[in-house]
Specification:
299 residues, alpha/beta, Rossmann fold, 2 domains, ten-stranded mixed β-sheet, elongated
Length: 299
């Protein structure tokens, strides 16, 4: 081999340095490209998040979903599955207008798109409705069956009147004019203890028909006001037995036809009668004559 000249030796020494510089430059370019792509990806993600938030807050997403749903709904209805008939049965006090408003149907609505759960909730929220069923009858009908509360009494509380069912639940406070024949229960807790009165009614309906009002006294017991002005004081406990005793007195002695104001049944095994002022005066006059018995009688 020929020896290298001084000039060639200098070039040979510089060659490794150039290769190292190229590698460094290549590495730098790769790093810059990596940073660029990472930044671009992060920018795209941020733009996506910002766009999603904007679309959500602006309501565009909901609007697009609604438009898509409505478009599908119209196509289903056009295929013969639009609600064309609504059959409503069982209602008496609830008006058809109230039921239709609760159903909230619109013209051309497809029977497939109905949210029966929400519709049922709105119908059962109507004052008179105790329970209801809503059934699709394909392809184009809806059956609505209503079960209404049964009114049992009118409850007077805080100078207001409410129609209540047998469980004491309030039905409504409007349109009570048609329920004058129902018993009037008065006072706090009177509606909650209505079942006690209904047991009495079932035992002696003819006698109970003469009760004009039942007053809850101290939320402990009942005073019954009859149609002829006689007041019956029932005990706190054993009111049903006391009522049965009163019914026996009425059947055998016509106690409500006597000149009495109050029949007090609060004492177990004893009945105290308070006479009318006229009868009490008559008794006093008789007593003066040696044949009276005073203002109260016990039977």
């Amino acid at each position: 081999m020929w020896p290298l000249s001084p000039k060639n030796r200098k070039k040979a020494k510089k060659a490794p340095a150039k290769r190292g510089a190229k590698q460094a430059q290549s590495l730098m370019r790769r790093r810059r490209l990596s940073i660029f792509f990472r930044g671009a990806s992060l920018t795209m993600v941020c733009l996506g998040v910002i766009s999603s938030v904007y679309i959500w807050k602006s309501g565009l997403l909901q609007e697009w979903a609604t438009e898509t749903h409505d478009s599908i709904d119209r196509k289903i209805a056009a295929a013969g599955y639009a609600v064309d008939e609504v059959r409503i049965t069982g209602q008496r006090h609830t008006t058809l207008k109230q039921i239709r408003a609760a159903l909230a149907l619109y013209d051309g609505q497809s029977i497939v798109s109905l949210d029966l759960k929400q519709m049922l909730s709105r119908v059962e929220a109507l004052p008179w409705v105790k329970a209801a069923t809503i059934i699709r009858v394909m392809p184009d009908a809806l059956e609505v069956t209503i079960t209404e509360h049964q009114p049992a009494a009118v409850w007077q509380h805080d100078n207001r009147l409410y129609l209540v069912d047998e469980a004491g639940r309030i039905i409504t406070d409007h349109g009570l004019e048609g329920f004058a024949k129902l018993p009037l229960v008065v006072g706090e807790g009177a509606n909650e203890h209505l079942a006690e009165l209904l047991v009495m009614r079932d035992h002696a309906p003819a006698l109970f028909a003469r009760v004009k009002s039942a007053v809850r006294v101290g939320n402990r017991r009942w005073d019954l006001n009859f149609d002829n002005g006689v007041k019956i004081k029932l005990p706190e406990k054993g009111s049903e037995l006391a009522w049965r005793r009163l019914n026996q007195y009425q059947n055998k002695q016509k106690i409500l036809s006597k000149e009495v104001m109050v029949v007090d049944l609060r004492l177990d095994g004893k009945t105290i009668l308070r006479l009318t002022p006229e009868e009490a005066e008559r008794r006093r006059m008789m007593e003066k004559a040696g044949a009276g018995s005073g203002k109260k009688e016990t039977i």
